[in-house]
Amino acid sequence: MDKVLATVLLVVASVVCVVLVINAVYPAITSSSGALSSISASVNERIETQIKIIHATGELDSSGNWVDTNSNGDFDVFVWVKNIGTAPVDDITRCDVFFTGNNTIWTWIPYVDYAGGSYPRWSYTIENGTEWGAATTLMIDIHYSSPLPSGPYNVKVMAPNGVSDEYDFSM
Description:
Layout: H1 2-48, E1 51-58, E2 75-83, E3 96-101, E4 107-109, E5 121-126, E6 137-144, E7 152-158, E8 164-170
Antiparallel strand pairs: 1-2, 2-6, 3-4, 3-7, 5-6, 7-8
């Protein structure tokens, strides 16, 4: 009878231990599964999103002098960015535009709606579509209140999910 009682107590203790382990481990497994799923979706989005700056230039005439060619009262730098990925870039206004030149520090350029009327600021036009989807080109117009000096420049455009490209050019 002693052996039966000892066996029953050991079985009950084993069941209690298994329940305790399951209660401790199961929440960790389900939360890590959600985290892995979220990371997987983020990586997938980054893989599907690719951008390429294809050209950049200032609002210059054939002699290299600044001219307000579009009559908006600003001196503009135009940057054409192509979506070479398979996913559209949503909420273009959340893109980051950085600009530097002539041995100056990088400057973050705010979108026109967030610039509060100050310069520089940028706006955009979708060249060949209604959204910045695959194979669509975005023209970014960086507005300055005065002409920029001649020399080398660099522009970097970063999509909201962190995918970016940069481009060196001279004006």
